[in-house]
TrEMBL record:
Tagged with keyword Transferase: yes
Molecular functions per Gene Ontology: copper ion binding; hydrolase activity; S-methyl-5-thioadenosine phosphorylase activity
The entry's keywords: Hydrolase, Metal-binding, Transferase, Zinc
PANTHER family: PURINE NUCLEOSIDE PHOSPHORYLASE LACC1, UNCHARACTERIZED PROTEIN YFIH
UniProt similarity note: Belongs to the purine nucleoside phosphorylase YfiH/LACC1 family.
Catalytic activity as recorded in UniProt: inosine + phosphate = alpha-D-ribose 1-phosphate + hypoxanthine; adenosine + H2O + H(+) = inosine + NH4(+); adenosine + phosphate = alpha-D-ribose 1-phosphate + adenine; S-methyl-5'-thioadenosine + phosphate = 5-(methylsulfanyl)-alpha-D-ribose 1-phosphate + adenine
Functional summary from the UniProt entry: Purine nucleoside enzyme that catalyzes the phosphorolysis of adenosine and inosine nucleosides, yielding D-ribose 1-phosphate and the respective free bases, adenine and hypoxanthine. Also catalyzes the phosphorolysis of S-methyl-5'-thioadenosine into adenine and S-methyl-5-thio-alpha-D-ribose 1-phosphate. Also has adenosine deaminase activity.
Protein name (Swiss-Prot/TrEMBL): Laccase domain-containing protein
Alphabetical list of Gene3D superfamilies matching this protein: CNF1/YfiH-like putative cysteine hydrolases (3.60.140.10)
Coiled coil: none
InterPro entries reported for this sequence: Cu_polyphenol_OxRdtase, Cu_polyphenol_OxRdtase_sf, Cytotoxic_necrot_fac-like_cat
Species the sequence originates in: Eggerthella sinensis
Length: 282
């Protein structure tokens, strides 16, 4: 287990990884402190062909399965994690959280089976396991503890409403209780990757009403849009996360669909970029 001193305030910067110079957003200070590598990928760096070009990491969108597997391998190789087992859930816009507590082949097989059955968050308390979730407008969330434990969550608007990221925080806090005490969540860094921002997330009145009822008026900027980031942050605060430790990448996938996949901007036919995290044993 790594040391549990306070984490640096979260900051994401763009860098390129590996021989293919694969671009991703990451936090180098976090990596230096904890050994946890987080990365939010974009479109560039893979082998998929249009309309999935090129680093499509989703295997449910119509892309060639071989291309998806190659893209995932290229990502892990670029991040210096080619030897780390990867768990990728079947995302169902729910609130199921799968925990991965060991790196034995039996534990990985069990976690993969549970994740394939449907999950929208992975909580990883063991080193040498990589978690990958895939996105194209939904909100990618990576939560990191000073202990080196972490979680990755997929929050579409239903996932924001049902609190899947907050549920992952609570699961992580239970695992951290012995080292960090009952207020563990207040020590966590939360990284929010590229997603559809409020200016582009136009909804019907029913969705706006649901968010206003659940999170209050702060997440309803006007009579047409919902601010998923604000709603997500309010839910995380309820789980004990400090607002100043929630870092947004500041990228709207609809506006930047040349760099990131966007379901809305591309008419529903596109690839998926990823949020990945792992910690190699030291």
């Amino acid at each position: 287990m790594v040391a549990t001193e306070q984490l640096p305030i979260p900051q994401m910067t763009a860098r390129r990884f590996g021989a293919r110079c694969l671009p991703a957003l990451t936090d180098e200070a976090l990596y230096e402190r904890t050994g946890v590598r987080i990365a939010f990928t974009g479109r560039e760096g893979g082998v998929s062909l249009a309309p999935y070009a090129s680093l499509n990491l989703g295997n449910h969108v119509g892309d060639e399965p071989e291309a998806v597997e190659r893209n995932r391998a290229l990502l892990l190789e670029a991040l210096d994690a080619a030897d780390v087992p990867l768990v990728v859930p079947s995302q169902v816009h729910g609130d199921e959280v799968v925990s991965i507590d060991a790196v034995s082949s039996e534990a990985i097989d069990e976690a993969r089976a549970a994740a394939r059955a449907g999950a929208d968050a992975l909580v990883v308390t063991a080193p040498d396991v990589a978690a990958l979730l895939c996105f194209a407008d939904c909100v990618p969330v990576v939560i990191v503890s000073p202990t080196g434990r972490f979680a990755v969550a997929h929050a579409g608007w239903r996932g924001v409403e049902n609190g899947v990221a907050a549920k992952a925080v609570r699961a992580l806090a239970r695992a951290d209780a012995a080292e960090l005490g009952p207020d563990a969540a207040g020590t966590y860094n939360v990284y929010v990757g590229p997603h559809i921002h409020a200016s582009c997330f136009e909804t019907g009145a029913d969705v706006r009403d649901r968010f206003a009822t659940r999170f209050g008026p702060a997440c309803i900027p006007d009579d047409r849009h919902v601010d998923l980031l604000e709603a997500l942050t309010l839910g995380l605060e309820e789980a004990g996360v400090a607002r100043e430790r929630v870092a947004d990448a500041g990228v709207c996938t609809v506006c930047a669909h040349d760099e990131y996949f966007s379901y809305r901007a591309e008419g529903g036919v596109c690839g998926r970029h990823g949020a990945v995290a792992f910690r190699k044993a030291r």
